[in-house]
Design goal:
Elements lengths: L1 H21 L13 H28 L5 H8 L3 H29 L6 H8 L2 H21 L8
Length: 153
Amino acid sequence: MTTGLFVYGTLGVASTAFACWANRRLFSGGVGRPTLLEGLYVTFAVAALGLGWYFNVRYVHQTGSSATYWNFTKAIFANPAADSAAQDTVIVNLVLLPLWTIVDGRRRGLRHAWIFFVMSLFTSLAFAMGFYLAFVERQERYRALEPADSSTA
């Protein structure tokens, strides 16, 4: 069970590092220091990651060898109130987040925007969303620094 946590943690770090590496131009040069909004996105993302991992580690230790994605998903549908929150989370994480980040990320010029969906599978939905929004903020500032295309159509 500890091996699984290590593997998921490693994949979470790797997917986050890949997002940063693929978009490294946003973190060097003239983009500058993070804005307050970027800082808030990252702060809440990291807080959500910490809380999520706290509960996930507890779940894995309590559940033992049956701590699988399938059993976890069944457990979040424990009663009608949980069912409501769980269905929202599942649909957002598995359908809307990938559509949003891939389409919107491509439009905005983010590289490999699909990685935020992958990141959400190994970190948390809130972490991936917070990082995506922080990257979008940096991307908008990066675009503002780019010289306008001087060619005419």
